[in-house]
Each structure stands twice: as C-alpha cells, then as structure tokens.
Structure to design on (919 residues):
C-alpha cells in the first residue's frame, strides 16, 4: 500500500483504512478492535515505543476495567501494544503527525522520511498533559528542577536519573500521589503537597493510606505564589488562601501535577469544533468529531480519566468507525450537553439520538469543587428530566461519572441538556 | 582553541591586541568585526555562553528606528543596523520575518499624536509610515479589541531570532580567530601606565586569570558602568529596567500576523503584541526600574499588568495558554542616548547604555566602534582572506524546518526523528548543536540553539530525553578533551547543572 503518487518528491503515501494517531491505551485498543475486524489499521506515535503515558508510570493500578486485572503501567503498555500488533494493526513509532494534508490525510515525519497518510477514517488519541508552571502563571525565578509529573517519571523510570532531595508537589489528586511515589523511589522526600481545595482530592482509598505510608504533609487551601532560586530551586512561596499569609518552604524540586489540558493541537489544526470546557474536540456519543470520518478518544476528550476508561473508549469507537466506513452517517446536529458550576466540562459534549449509548453508558464530568453529596439534576428546555443522588461524591481532580440513563427522558428534538448539582 | 578552553581552566592566551568585555549581541558583533583585521581579539564573557544576558530576553524586533529620538547616535545606528543585520541575516540564515507593524491609537490624544510620529519617522530617515483609519487597522489585525481609533503602519518593522543573531556573530568571530573566553568575569582593571611595551597594555584581572590587552572595548551591558568605573570614569549609571513578557501558545499565532504597537510614551515603547519568529505570540514588555542587575525573576504584579493590558488589546489572545514567561533587563541610564566614549590615552572604548534597540543596532555599533578605534590609532589591516560566514541552522518558522524536509531526512534519518515534539526539534538538530563550534553549556543554551524544550509542554514529554542528550554531549566533550586535550587537567564541572 506504499508508493510515491506525486504528492511531493520524496514523500511516501500510505492509504490505510484507519489511521490512529497516538499509541496510548485508547489508540491501541481502538487499533486492536478495528484490525481484528479485518481493516487495515495504521497507528502512529511520535515516541520511540508504543504505550503512551503508562510506559513511564511505573506503579500498579492499570487495567482494572478493560483487562479485568491490575498491573503496573509499563507492563500494561506493552500488553496493549502486543495485542494491537497481534490483531494485525501496524504500529509505527517515531512517527510524529505534524499536520493535515486533507480531510482525513495526515503529514507525518519519520526517520524513514516524510509520509502522507491518506486514511478513510482517522481516530485521534493524542492524550492529555499537565499544565506546566508557565501556563499556570506562577512567577519568580526560572531555575531547573521545576517540572510536571510526566517529566519526573520519564527522568526516574525511563532515564534512571536523580532528582533532588526535598520536593514540593503542587496538587493533591491521583496523579500527585503517583508523583510522590516516584519521588520516594528516587530518594527525594516530599516536604509538602499543596492544594487549593479544602481536601486532598484523590480517592480516599489512595490518599489516606498514601498519607500514612508516604507521610506527606498536605497543605489544603493553599497555593504556590512564587519560585525562588536563580540557578537551582531554593524554595517556594506558599500562600494560605484563607488568610493571605505567605510563607517560604525550602525545597530543591517542584512538581506541578494535574491541571490537565488535552493535546489538542491536531484537533485545533483541523478546525474541529472544540469543547470550551475541556478544550478537547467536541464529540458525540459515538465519539465522532465535527469532521466526518474523524473520531476522538481517550484523554483527548476527557482530560483526564484513568487508562482503562481511555482504553474502553477505543473499544467503543471501533463499532462507530466501522459504521462510518460502511456509509452510516450521523443523523441530525445532536443535542449539546451543558454543565453548571461546579462542573467545568462534560464528555461527550453532544448526544445524538439514535447513535447508541456513550462509552460504558456513562457521561463524564469534571468538577472544580468537592461535594460530598452528589444530587444530580438534568434539565432540558426548562424541564427537569432526571434527578438522582449518586452514591459517590463529586471531587475535583477526578472524573465524576453519571449513568447515561439519566438522559433517557430527553426530548430528541429538544434544546441543550444541562447537568447540574441540586 | 578547543571548546573546553572556551569555558574552563587557565586562559588559553596571555595577551591580545583587543579585548572585548561582554559577550552579548553587541560584544559579539564587535569581536566579529575586529577579527576581520590582522589583530588578535578576545571576547571576554562572565557567563558560560554568548548572549546569555539581556540579549537573550528581549522582544526580538528588528527595528526600523522610526520612533527613535531624531539626531541621536541611537537613531543613526538603529537605522544602519537594520540594513546591516537584514543583509547579514540573509547571508547566514538568521531567521527574519518581514511582518510589518501597525501602531494603534486608542484615545483621541493618541490619534492626534500619529502625524507627529510619522513626521518623526521621516526625520529618522524612515519614509514609509502611513496613517490609516480604524477600518484599516481592523483589516490588518481582525482580532484586536474593539475601540481602536486609527493607526500608523510601519511596513518594514520585522521580527528576528535574537539567539541565532548573537550566535552567528560569535561563530564567525571564532572562525576568524577570536578567542571566546567564557566563565571569565572581569574583576579588576589596570589601565595602561605608559605608551610603550608592556606599559601600553591594559591588564584585566579575570576570574580565570590575567589577560593583557592593547585595547579594551567595554560592551558589558548591564555591567558597562562598573567596567567604566574600573577605568576611572563616572560618566553614567546603569539602572536595570525590567521588562516581563508572556509567550502564548502557537495556536494563538493566527490571531496576529504583524507587530501591534502602542503609541510610545515617555516610559518607553509600551506593551506590544507580536508574532515571534518561532511561531508564537508575545505580549509585553513591562517597564520597571530595579536595583538588582541579576534579578530576572518575573513578578505577580508584572503578570497582572500584562494580563490587564492583554485583555484590553486582544481578549482572544488570553483564551490561549501561556507557553512561557520571562523577564529581561534593559541597561537604562540617566541619559537619553547610547553611552559611547573613546579614551585614546587609555586605549579604551565603552559601548554602554544600549538599552532597548541593541539587537537591531549591534552591527552598526560595531562598525561605529571600528571607526572610532581606527581614528584613535588602532591599526586596522584587513586580513587577506577570511573564512566564509557561517550558515546557521534555521530555528524559525518562516522557512522549512528539518522535520518538514524530505530531502534532508532522506540523507540523514536523524532529521526525521522528532525529540522535542511541541517544537518539532529533531535528533539531528540536537546532535548538530552539540557538535557546533560553540556548543551549548547547559539546557538553556541548547534551547537557544534548537528551540528544544521551549514549547507548550515545557518538558512533560521530552524534558528527560533532551537533558540526557545534552549530558551525553557534554560528557563526550570532556572525554575527548581528556584524551586529546593539551592541558592535562580533568575537571568534571563541564556537566550541565
Ligand atoms: C503520572 C500519571 C499516573 C497515572 N496513573 C494511573 C493509574 O495508576 N491508573 C490508571 O488507570 N491511569 C493512570 N493515569 C492515567 C493514564 O495514564 C491515562 O488515562 C492514559 O494514558 C490515557 O490514555 P490515552 O490513550 O488517552 O493517552 P496517552 O496515554 O497520553 O497517549 C497518547 C499518545 O499519543 C501520542 N501522540 C500525541 N500527539 C501525537 C502526534 N502528533 N503524533 C503522533 N503521536 C502523538 C503520544 O506520544 C502518546 O503516546 C496516570 C497518568 C499520569 C500522568
Ligand atoms: C524587555 C526588552 C525588550 C527589548 N526589545 C528589543 C527589540 O525588540 N529589538 C532590539 O533591537 N532590542 C531590544 N532590546 C534591547 C536589546 O536586547 C539590548 O539592547 C541588547 O541585548 C544589549 O546587548 P549588549 O551586548 O549590550 O548587552 P548584554 O546582552 O547584556 O551583554 C552584556 C554581556 O556582558 C557580560 N558582562 C557584564 N559584566 C561583565 C564582566 N565584568 N566581565 C565579563 N563579562 C561581563 C554579561 O554577562 C553579558 O553577557 C530589548 C531589551 C529588553 C530588556
């Protein structure tokens, strides 16, 4: 299927049925299912090995809902990659998609040359990253030693390098505890975790024993206001949000965790409709974007959920990609889903009656605040269509799931649906 | 000289004909110009690299000089420097984009000031400014906030890569035989005591030992008044004027395709919105007088000020993520012009107070400096042959980058292997930078040569990988030095950080 068909000299063209951008859990799972149904699937990932974030997340906690077992990140990443390849998908690493050459055509840079991939359908699975210190507008000096969890885990797990001896972790959600584990493994003590929220927001199941085992002091209702140290980090300034009082906490490493933003560059470059809340591409219950034949899955559309949920998006999208290739097109514009505070985004952002259930029959939401009692109210055109108290709390820094059955009373011809807390 | 001698150990030379203090864009341009003649030249820089001071942290505009103060040396040298650097950029591949600028009036008072600015531009020898109405302003910059009353276009105002500029000057100076002496801080000066022999030399006491020089050029930027003081003068005082800037995500680039300037005030050029040569959008700088000449930290109030300005100028810009923020210190003095003085007796020239236009004017300042030195008696015999000017790697967005070039990748797969994804920096470019005549000393130096790590993820994905490559490169250099170096010392401090 390769050849040079006069695109530009030296540019090779590939024409798979489906191009999957991103070989993380969501992309690999989509690729496996699509390849298993006999389609020619080409997965492109810019890293030198497939697997996405779990590759360098060297702790357990992966695979629960998709593989029904719990394993560590690197093993999980390897397994998903192997399965995709076994199913017949071509997984190409060191292949960076740099832009679009057409509606479903991609420009790719690889060591073997520039490639143009003309696919019949495209699945975007480019994931999400943590906002760096710069994007959070934390002023002060700019020494090395300030990083995200992603870089920390790359340094420690993939490059086996040292970090400092005293760290401050900004954030106290799931990923923050993951950072604390990595720091401990690297021999670096976490002297403080800061969170603007009144509680450490990760699962109690993790943070209570986490706190006990890791002995990390958590300063709730605080924020880091300045980084101090010209050549190396010497301290951070921490503000107590209640009193405004500031103190200096000596440290040599600062890890900015959480505060996710999807890697939406390709989605933006394509001019896809973007969800203003999550900043990922707007998708419907079939994970279709606003461009026919272009789908989006994983943390790109819900920054962020756990890897198994991302993987199950891949499972979900496969059927809809096959439908699209068989000529099934979306019916109607769909009904927008909206949220009210404390929620900041909802995924999918669009429901199309007749397109089936969303992944796992769940609507995913993100909250800026903690609510111990989750009384969910769904309204459409001024009419309440559902109200239910869910048995799990609303916590910032982790996805809040609502059964999609709560939307079943919606008028398929009605206006936007709003999800709020009563 | 080998790269190690640039940075570590005893100075590789005892005496030079001319020592240039300060390896910023001005000092590097002067060293380059001097080394075209039969002279031994040293560029003496306190830091580990060229262009690591103010020259790395500015707004990177190649100014036409339309708004300079007519009749000043600055006006003349900016105008001339614009032409010289524009040509040199073409020769050496320094990225330049001819974006043009539009200066926007938001109040009646500012609108009334436009004809005066156009007249001033003409006095400065720049004739192409044009007053335009609000409609034309919005045609040129559709994303601008509502409320603009009119504008003045400056079609030749351009953007340039400040890092490649300084590096190109220094690389060419090196190829012409200049000694690049990094980590060499001038701490004391003994001006010449006589007119002949050793007594005619200045003795520079540096952190790496003593250097004798027949002539000294002081291009020490923020430290130029201190060096001037060491020569016994009290002509000007530098007050660092901090400028903080935001760099917005590349996704913001479609909002701004030219430089958007405010009407200048007595406080300076004001806050602008500009595309950067790397494909981002910049907002800034602030202007705030400080005491500490080394404090380039950013501040809460600076950020607050910029956000407020940005919201007024272009609200859509603030919807995008901030990729980076930084601060630079202008070498402001109590005078309105460059502080250039030649002391023929001391065989000493100071190029100080080059505050907010030095990137543009550097080559003209160098040309001017040569004129002054020649008049004062420095013999300038052109070298019979000179090496070709360097061809600098393109790190700008206006020309194809290696990752886009099928021809390059076909020859060398390393140009097809992306290492820094956000900025699309390839393995080949990082390797080339590490093997370049002036290799980076640290991560920041690598960033200035390749753009690695300056993108939106700030290292989330590739930070560890890029740092690993830098370490390996520096370690290799150390090893090669130990195996082949002339001086047998085995210092280990070459490692970054
Ligand atoms: C520190 C940390 C700890 C975590 N711990 C857990 C845990 O214990 N359990 C759990 O279930 N989840 C955990 N997660 C979350 C989990 O890693 C993610 O949910 C999961 O990786 C998301 O999968 P994805 O496929 O959406 O994206 P990713 O895994 O992010 O994969 C995206 C892929 O796309 C590629 N890509 C992006 N752009 C391009 C392009 N232009 N061209 C080519 N390739 C591209 C990237 O290289 C990457 O490989 C953790 C996350 C982090 C950061
Ligand atoms: C916010 C801001 C925006 C700007 N925007 C622009 C613009 O858009 N266009 C433009 O043309 N110009 C601009 N400028 C101005 C421009 O950056 C400066 O004029 C120029 O960089 C000055 O170069 P320099 O070589 O004189 O100084 P520097 O770059 O500061 O170099 C001086 C060097 O001397 C060294 N040094 C000091 N003391 C000693 C010592 N004792 N021994 C050895 N070495 C010493 C320092 O380490 C330093 O590297 C801007 C400046 C700022 C701050």
């Amino acid at each position: 299927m390769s050849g040079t068909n006069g695109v530009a000299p030296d540019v090779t063209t590939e024409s798979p049925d489906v191009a999957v951008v991103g070989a993380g859990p969501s992309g690999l799972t989509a690729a496996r299912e699509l390849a298993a149904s006999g389609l020619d699937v080409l997965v492109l990932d810019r890293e030198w090995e497939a697997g996405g974030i779990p590759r360098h997340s060297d702790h357990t906690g992966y695979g629960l809902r998709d593989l029904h077992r719990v394993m560590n990140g690197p093993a999980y990443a390897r397994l998903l990659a192997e399965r995709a390849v076994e199913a017949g998908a071509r997984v190409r690493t060191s292949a960076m998609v740099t832009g679009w050459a057409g509606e479903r055509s991609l420009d790719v840079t690889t060591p073997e040359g520039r490639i143009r991939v003309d696919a019949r359908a495209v699945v975007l699975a480019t994931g999400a990253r943590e906002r760096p210190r710069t994007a959070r507008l934390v002023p002060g000096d700019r020494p090395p030693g300030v990083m995200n969890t992603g870089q920390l885990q790359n340094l420690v797990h993939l490059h086996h390098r040292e970090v400092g001896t005293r760290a401050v972790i900004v954030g106290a959600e799931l990923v923050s505890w993951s950072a604390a584990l990595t720091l401990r493994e690297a021999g670096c003590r976490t002297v403080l975790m800061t969170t603007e929220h009144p509680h450490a927001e990760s699962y109690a199941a993790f943070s209570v024993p986490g706190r006990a085992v890791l002995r990390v002091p958590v300063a709730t209702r605080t924020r880091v206001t300045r980084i101090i140290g010209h050549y190396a980090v010497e301290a951070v300034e921490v503000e107590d949000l209640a009193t405004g009082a500031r103190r200096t906490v000596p440290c040599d490493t600062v890890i900015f965790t959480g505060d996710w933003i999807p890697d939406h560059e390709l989605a933006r470059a394509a001019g896809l409709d973007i969800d203003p809340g999550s900043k990922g591409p707007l998708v419907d219950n079939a994970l279709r974007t606003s461009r026919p034949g272009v789908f989006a899955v994983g943390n790109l559309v819900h920054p962020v959920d756990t890897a198994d949920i991302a993987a199950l998006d891949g499972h979900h999208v496969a059927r809809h990609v096959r439908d699209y290739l068989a000529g099934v097109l979306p019916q109607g514009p769909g009904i927008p889903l909206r949220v009210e505070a404390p929620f900041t985004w909802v995924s999918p952002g669009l429901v199309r009656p007749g397109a089936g259930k969303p992944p796992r029959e769940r609507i995913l939401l993100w909250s800026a605040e903690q609510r111990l009692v989750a009384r969910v109210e769904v309204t459409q055109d001024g009419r309440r269509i559902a109200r239910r108290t869910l048995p799990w709390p609303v916590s910032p820094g982790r996805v809040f799931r609502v059964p999609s059955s709560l939307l079943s009373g919606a008028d398929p011809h009605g206006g936007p649906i709003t999800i709020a807390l009563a | 000289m080998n790269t190690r001698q640039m940075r570590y150990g005893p100075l590789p030379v005892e005496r030079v004909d001319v020592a240039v203090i300060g390896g910023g864009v001005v000092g590097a341009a002067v060293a380059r110009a001097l080394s075209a003649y039969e002279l031994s030249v040293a560029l003496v820089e306190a830091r580990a690299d060229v262009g690591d001071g103010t020259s790395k942290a500015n707004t990177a505009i190649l100014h036409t000089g339309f708004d300079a103060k007519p009749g000043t040396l600055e006006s003349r040298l900016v105008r001339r420097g614009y032409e010289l650097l524009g040509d040199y950029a073409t020769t050496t591949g320094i990225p330049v984009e001819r974006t043009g600028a539009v200066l926007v009036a938001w109040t009646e008072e500012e609108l009334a000031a436009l004809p005066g600015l156009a007249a001033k531009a003409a006095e400065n020898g720049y004739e192409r400014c044009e007053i335009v109405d609000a409609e034309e302003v919005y045609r040129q910059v559709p994303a601008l906030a509502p409320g603009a009353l009119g504008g003045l276009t400056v079609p030749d105002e351009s953007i340039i890569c400040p890092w490649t500029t300084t590096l190109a000057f220094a690389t060419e100076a090196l190829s012409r035989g200049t000694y690049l002496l990094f980590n060499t801080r001038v701490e004391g000066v003994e001006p010449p005591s006589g007119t002949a022999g050793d007594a005619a030399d200045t003795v520079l006491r540096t952190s790496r030992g003593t250097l004798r020089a027949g002539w000294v050029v002081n291009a020490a930027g923020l430290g130029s008044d201190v060096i001037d003081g060491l020569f016994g003068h009290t002509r000007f005082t530098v007050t660092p004027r901090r400028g903080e800037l935001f760099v917005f995500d590349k996704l913001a680039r479609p909002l701004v395709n030219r430089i958007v300037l405010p009407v200048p005030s007595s406080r300076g050029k004001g806050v602008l919105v500009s595309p950067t040569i790397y494909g981002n959008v910049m907002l800034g700088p602030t202007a705030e007088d400080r005491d500490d000449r080394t404090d380039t930290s950013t501040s809460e109030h600076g950020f607050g000020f910029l956000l407020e300005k940005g919201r007024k100028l272009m609200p859509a810009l603030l919807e995008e993520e901030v990729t980076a923020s930084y601060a630079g210190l202008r070498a402001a003095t109590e005078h309105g012009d460059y502080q250039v003085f030649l002391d023929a007796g001391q065989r000493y020239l100071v190029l100080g107070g080059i505050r907010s236009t030095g990137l543009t004017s550097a080559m003209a300042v160098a040309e001017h400096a040569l004129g002054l030195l020649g008049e004062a008696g420095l013999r300038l015999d052109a070298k019979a042959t000179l090496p070709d000017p360097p061809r600098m790697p393109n790190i700008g967005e206006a020309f194809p980058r290696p990752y886009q070039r099928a021809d390059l990748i076909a020859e060398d797969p390393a140009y097809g292997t992306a290492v820094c994804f956000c900025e699309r920096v390839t393995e080949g470019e990082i390797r080339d930078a590490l093997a370049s005549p002036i290799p980076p000393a640290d991560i920041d130096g690598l960033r200035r040569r390749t753009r690695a790590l300056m993108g939106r993820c700030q290292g989330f994905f590739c930070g560890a990988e890029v740092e690993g490559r830098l370490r390996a490169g520096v370690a290799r250099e150390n090893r090669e030095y130990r195996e082949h170096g002339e001086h047998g010392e085995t210092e280990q401090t070459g490692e970054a950080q």
Q: What stands out?
A: The first helix of chain A runs from residue 25 to 36. The longest strand of chain A covers residues 383-390. Confidence is low (pLDDT under 50) at residues 1-6 of chain A.
